[in-house]
Every structure is written in structure tokens, then in C-alpha cells.
Amino acid sequence: MNRMFSIFKRDLISSFREFLLIYIILIPIILAIALRFFIPSINSVSFKFAIDKNMDNKIIEQFKDYGSIELFDGREEIKGRVKKVDDVIGIMQKDKDNFIVIMEGNEKESSKFIPQQIIRSINKKSNESIVKISNIETKISLVAVYGASSIILMAIVFSGVIVGFNIIEEKELGTIGALNTTPMTSIDFILGKSIIGFILPIIESFIILWILNMMSLNIGMMIVITLTSSLISILFGFLIGVFSSNQIAGVANMKLLLILVSASYVGAILLPKSKQGFLYWSPLYWSSLGLNSVIMNTANWNDVLNYSFWILALTLVIFLVCRTKIKNTLI
């Protein structure tokens, strides 16, 4: 245990000594501060609804609290409005407690959660419950959601990059070979190198959420998704360290990793669900889904455990494929 924390302490000191690593640590927080000045207010109008004018006026008024509305006469007129270029959600009332949501089908996956949460709040019997749920679950800009989740994912990935650059430094100084002559085991070395990759994402994630005023979420779910996502990030960090002979090569490999991260995240939020099967192989795709759903307060524990399972399973597969290379280089 002492050996592991000695490695962690040395890596922490090294990270703050190198300007590049300080930049990697701070950039997610700087981006969060910048985003805070540009995202719409949490209480601002963020959504558009095409609503049947025959619905109860009280319900129509409640939808005005969540966005702009346009009134139409019947299903066909609503469908015609929904089919236009901009994102508009059609709403009809089947009876007192049942609503029909009309969507074109090519919207972002997250869009379907918005009307569900609004309708759920409207169906509550007490006004107090409506206010509580809508403030937490629905009255939040999608720009804020996607901005927060992308910055948090960046912080998680960058924590793995720090692990990789610390390994590169060990290789350049020749200390990895010297460690083989000490009582330190390979498990001590791997776990010691990984500690910073677990601690830093948790700290930065909650700093980012605090800056963006988005702490009204399930803390436990956020920790679980962040920790499981950190595993794949740490593994990628080890691979950067293994395949990079110096920091220049490390930066090049980091850029390749960021391309993978960007493709996984953009695909998760922009591709229709029917096309997202092409991304199932990427652990970062599941991380993106998990972060978005937790931040939007649409996830339950079954969802979180499902996302975590896929992250862990795919991370294990990647590790088994690369295990020999890691072992021959570091152990």
C-alpha cells in the first residue's frame, strides 16, 4: 500500500512540475467557466412545442413554462409542423391523464426525454411536486447538458493522458527498469499509476458541475459512471505510455485518442438510435450515454448499471488484446 501511494505522490508532483500536464488538468475547468457565460439560463426558454389547441388551457399554460408553443388544429397540422427543419415536439392530449408525443423520428436521442419529463410533472397532483421536478429534470438547456457532459468526458480522458505522460517520463528517465530490482510488484506499479486517473476525474467532474450550477442530480450515479469511465481512460493512458517513446509521440497518440472520443460522443448525441449500433464497440460511447442521462436526470440505476457493464466489458476486451504489449514494456 505504501509503495502504491509513493508512486501516486511522485506522479502528482511530476504532473504539477510539467507545464503540459498542468494545462491538461486545468483546461476542462477553464472550458466550464467559459461555457457558464454562454449557456442559456437554466430558466430560459429552450424548447419548441406544437400543441393541439383543443387541449386544456391550463395544460397549455404549463407548457409555456418550458418553452415556446405554437397552437394547431388537430394531428395532421401538428405533424406538418413537426416535419419542418427545426426541432419541434408535437403534443396532443388523448384523455385527462394520457398524452401523445409526436416526433419526426430523426431527432437527437435525448429529445424524447424532454416531453416525457414535462408530462410527468403535469400529471403530478400537487403544484409543489410540479415545481420540484421541473426545476431538476426538465428546465435545463440541452446546450448546458451536452456542454457539461462533453467537458466531463474530456476531464476523464485527460486524466488517463496524465497517466500516460507519467509513464513516458519514467521510460525517459530509465526508472521502469530500475523498479524491477525493488520489492515493488507489478500490481503495485499499475495500481499506483492508476490512482491519479481515478481521483482527478471525480474532483474535476464535480467542480465542473458546480461551476455550471448543475449539482441537482444523483451524486451516486455520477460517481459510478465517472469511475467506470475512468477505467477505459486509464487503460488508454497506459497504451499511450507503452506506444510512445517520448512526449512528442505521446502528444501524437493523444490526438488519435481525442479523435476516438469525439467520434463516440458526437455519434451518441447526433446519430439516430437506429444508426448507433456502429458505435457499440466503443466504451466511450457508453460513457457518453451515461453522462448525458445522469446529467439530464433521466437515468435510473438499471440504466447506470447497464452502461457501466458495457464500459467494463469492452475495457476488459481491449486490455486482454493489449496485455502482452503492456506486460513486455512496463513489467
Walk me through the structure.
The protein is α/β, with parallel strands linked by helices and 331 residues long. The chain has 2 domains: 226 residues, no CATH class; 92 residues, no CATH class. The protein has 13 helices and 4 strands. The chain has a 4-stranded mixed beta sheet, sandwiched between helices. Helix 1 crosses helix 9, helix 5 packs antiparallel against helix 6 and helix 7 packs antiparallel against helix 9. The longest helix is centred in the middle third of the chain and has 32 residues. 38% of the residues are buried.
What would you call the shape? Answer: elongated
The proportion of strand residues reads 5-15%
Number of strands: 4
Helix content: 55-70%
Count of DSSP-assigned helices = 13
Main location: membrane
InterPro entries: ABC-2_transporter_component, ABC2_TM
Protein name: ABC transporter permease
Transmembrane segments: 20-39, 142-167, 187-212, 219-242, 248-271, 304-322
What's the SSE blueprint?
Layout: H1 2-17, H2 19-38, E1 47-52, H3 57-64, E2 67-72, H4 75-82, E3 89-95, E4 98-102, H5 113-122, H6 127-138, H7 142-173, H8 175-179, H9 186-211, H10 219-243, H11 247-270, H12 283-295, H13 301-330
Parallel strand pairs: 1-2, 1-3
Antiparallel strand pairs: 3-4
Helix pairs in contact: 1-9, 2-7, 2-9, 5-6, 7-9, 7-10, 7-11, 7-12, 9-10, 10-11, 10-12, 10-13, 11-12, 12-13
